[in-house]
Design a protein that fits this description.
The complex is a heterodimer of chains A (302) and B (227).
Chain A lengths: L1 H22 L1 H38 L1 E6 L5 H13 L3 E7 L1 H10 L3 H8 L10 E6 L5 H9 L4 E5 L2 H42 L2 H9 L4 H42 L9 H32 L2
Antiparallel strand pairs in A: 1-3, 1-4, 2-3
Chain B lengths: L1 E9 L5 E10 L4 E5 L6 H8 L7 E6 L2 E2 L8 H5 L2 E4 L11 H10 L5 H15 L14 H13 L5 E5 L7 H17 L3 E5 L3 H6 L3 E6 L2 E6 L7
Parallel strand pairs in B: 3-8, 3-9, 6-7, 7-8
Antiparallel strand pairs in B: 1-2, 1-4, 4-5, 9-10
Helix pairs in contact in B: 3-4, 3-5, 4-5, 5-6
Classes of the chains: A alpha+beta (302), B alpha/beta (227).
């Protein structure tokens, strides 16, 4: 019965809410503006945080341990290292590269003049075989590297050393900091919407008193105010969404052109822009609903 | 219709507004509640429409123990009671018709019925021609009539008027009291009028309850202010 009545009255309540937003012009406008600013901030912070996250993951995935095998080792001895590497805890993948492949790589990385120079080494290859080891968790990079050093016929282990560890830590801090910032901003929006709605409601406390006097149920009084909060949130999300749609696409094109393809790849705009827009809409409307709910509650208490 | 049993109301501030009050008002009665300011008159009526709850003792309205009504059910209880205030409390942005219809809209009355009922009640209070006027376009007496119309449009069992003539001149006051009398006679509504107005209480003699210092000082069906 209550639900049926609620659905039947929904268009009426929506109309009441919209009319009320219109009649309380300045107040509504300031609420919408406040929501717009905060949602813009949230959009920016979330975009940055998500991009940092993507870059971090890219970098982390590219962090590997480079293992040089002793030149004195025979082919069998060299091959025997592979199962030992694979058996180590925390190792994800091991790739073998023979000394000829290593030389090819070296030559390929040189410029024209040097290429000829290095070609001379074809006959007497000074390089040894090598392994590239990927780890499951980059934080264990140094531990795994230390263990590899102890394996027989391993000549040299490189993994970037402590600077790599620092980088991993910094990236992680940025990610966590971004997440905390987003949560803090959401709370700020909640209070801002709740506060502006509270002001709007206080200005209409007589109206609420009269509604209560003539026997309007609490939900009948509450729903229009909650819808009003939701509409304010939705209207407040429009500008941030438009800004995100065009701003991010533009920024993405510019930055990608500047950076080129490589480690630093940004989150591509689609469907990212739509997903974030959805989040902003939900956030605005949800926060408006909840904020209004708590603001009206004060006036409905007996 | 209204029954109080040893009702005491002490506010959080420690003010003792009512002290061991017992009384009985039958259905269809017309009662004045008089007494000096701060004597407990307002507290008395607030207990009736459950704006306040008694500290001890029992309040019955239409056979219902008011204290036992759950908070969320209070609105439904209020539909049995019409309340009129000294300052009319009309919604300024709504027309006379909308103000009265408002009381029916919140109770989900169909539109056709709303129109019928509002027209009937406007006729009863004598404001048929003012349906589309806004409150600020009306005189005080007319605004009070609209407030009364709103209070009685859903046929409440009890009509409570808190200083209904407080802002009105003597002639208009008489008209308002005569209107309340008419409602009492025509609709058989129990009417409770809280007032300061000596002339009215003297002229329209009804049962009069005098409250002083939180107690019922006198309760007489002879009427008149000085009894």
């Amino acid at each position: 019965m209550m639900i049926v009545r609620g659905i039947k009255n929904f268009p009426k309540h929506c109309k009441t809410a919209l009319v009320s937003i219109w009649r309380n012009g300045v107040m509504s406008f300031s609420s919408i503006f406040a929501v717009t600013i905060t949602l813009l901030l949230i959009a920016v912070v979330m975009t940055i945080a998500l991009n940092v996250n993507k870059i971090t993951v890219n970098i982390e995935n590219s962090l590997t341990i480079y293992v040089k095998v002793d030149r004195a080792a025979t082919a069998e001895q060299s091959k025997a290292i592979e199962p030992q590497l694979k058996a180590l805890k925390g190792v994800k993948d091991v790739k073998f590269s023979s000394k000829d492949q290593e030389l090819n790589k070296l030559i390929a990385s040189q410029d024209k003049n040097n290429k000829k120079l290095f070609e001379n080494y074809r006959n007497d290859n000074p390089l040894g075989d090598a392994y590239t080891v990927e780890v499951k968790d980059v934080k264990t990079l140094d531990k795994v590297a230390k263990k590899i050093e102890n394996i027989q016929y391993v000549n040299e282990v490189t993994y970037g050393g402590s600077s790599t560890n620092k980088l991993v830590k910094i990236l992680e801090n940025i990610r966590n900091g971004g997440a905390i910032f987003v949560v803090a901003l959401v709370i700020v929006v909640l209070f801002m919407i709740a506060n502006t709605i509270k002001m709007a409601i206080t200005a209409r406390s007589t109206e609420i008193a009269i509604m209560r006097m003539v026997g309007a149920s609490n939900w009948y009084i509450r729903i229009p105010f909650m819808l009003e909060g939701a509409f304010i949130g939705l209207f407040g999300a429009i500008i941030p969404i438009v800004a995100l749609r065009y701003g991010y696409t533009f920024a993405y094109e510019q930055l990608t052109q500047m950076m080129g393809a490589g480690l630093v790849a940004f989150v591509s705009p689609f469907p990212f822009v739509y997903q974030l827009s959805g989040i902003l809409l939900l956030l605005g409307a949800g926060v408006g609903l909840i904020g209004a709910f708590f603001s009206v509650r004060k006036f409905l208490k007996l | 219709m209204i029954k109080l049993e040893n009702v005491t109301k002490v506010y959080k501030t420690g003010v003792r507004a009512l002290n061991d009050v017992s009384l009985d008002i039958a259905p269809g009665e017309f009662v004045y509640v008089i007494g000096p300011t701060g004597a407990g008159k307002s507290t008395f009526i607030k207990l009736l429409y459950r704006e306040e709850v008694a500290t001890s003792g029992k309040v019955f309205v239409d056979g219902q123990d008011v204290k036992k009504i759950k908070n969320w059910k209070v609105p439904y209880f209020r539909r049995k009671i019409g309340v009129v205030f000294q300052n009319y409390r009309l919604l300024p942005k709504k027309t006379v018709f909308e103000n009265i219809a408002f009381a029916l809209e919140v109770t989900d009355t169909p539109k056709v019925e709303i129109r019928k009922k509002v027209r009937r009640v406007l006729e009863l209070v004598g404001l048929e021609d003012k349906a589309n006027a806004f409150p600020h376009e009306l005189s005080g007496g007319q605004q009070q009539r609209v407030a009364i119309a709103r209070a009685i449009v859903n046929n409440p069992k009890v009509l409570i008027a808190d200083e209904p003539t407080g802002n009105l001149d003597p002639d208009t006051s008489k008209e308002i009291i005569e209107l309340l009398e008419k409602i009492n006679e025509v609709n058989k509504t129990t009417v409770l009028v809280v007032t300061h107005d000596r002339d009215i209480v003297q002229k329209y003699k009804k049962r009069t309850i005098r409250i002083e210092d939180g107690c019922i000082k006198t309760d007489t069906s002879l009427g008149g202010y000085n009894i």
